[in-house]
Amino acid sequence: MNPRASFRPNTYPGILAFVFGVVVLGAVEGAVAQAPKIRKSQEATVTQKIASTDVKISYSRPVARGRQIWGNVVKWGKTWCPGADSVTTISFSKPVQFAGQPVPAGSYSVWAIPDEKEWTLILSKAIHVWHEPYVDGQDFLRVRVRPAPGPHLETMTYSFPLVDADSAIMRFQWGDVMVSVPLRAP
How far apart (Å, rounded) are the C-alpha atoms in residues 86 and 107? Predict the structure, then answer.
């Protein structure tokens, strides 16, 4: 049998349209299945130059959403990563003083043990970790700082409200609490 004898020119475009439709439908379904889930706690990065040192903080920003944060969402006296969904990191392009303590250039995860009167801030060498649980034995530095009351801030924020020639104040703020840390880049 001659294969050309059974070819019908009018059915060929119909077959092509059907195959094309199946391919497009499969691609659309695949794209919908791979669409990223939008997180409630959006990722953020804050950078600041202090003298010739670059400081970069990467974190996810939880939102209060009417919840009581301190003592409830964040437990007093428990080690906590001040962020959400992934570990908060801070990096320094050159050595700095963090709350008066020397810190070499590099990247660190940020942790805190909050309390009503005093917080312990921790810079950890464990940076490729989740925001919980805290990894013991990887601390580089622990410093004590005093929280201060502040105006309510719905979404967690890191900022540098004061920057001078070779120093800055790094501030963490969420709800009605602010924690400030002096940085110096000699």
Answer: 15
Task: Note the pLDDT tens digit of each residue in 124-174.
Answer: 998 877 667 877 888 999 999 999 999 999 999 999 999 999 999 999 999
Reported as half-sphere exposure (CB side, CA atoms, 13 A), residue 18 has a value of 5
Name beta bridge partners: 174.
177
Q: How buried is residue 90: exposed, middle or buried, by Cβ count under 10 Å (0-12/13-18/19+)? A: buried
Tell me the per-residue pLDDT of 121-130, one tens digit each, with 9 for 90 and over.
999 998 877 6
For 72: left if phi > 0, alpha if psi spans -120 to 50, otherwise beta; the answer is alpha
**Domain coordinates in residue numbering, the chain:** 3-34, 42-184
* Cβ atoms 154, 67 nearer than 8 A: no
C-alpha 114/C-alpha 173 separation (Å) is 13
0.85 surpassed by pTM: no
CA distances from 164 to 72, 78, 96, 171, 184 (A): 36, 34, 14, 15, 9
Give the neighbor-by-neighbor strand order of the sheet with 167-184: 101-103, 96-98, 167-184, 148-163
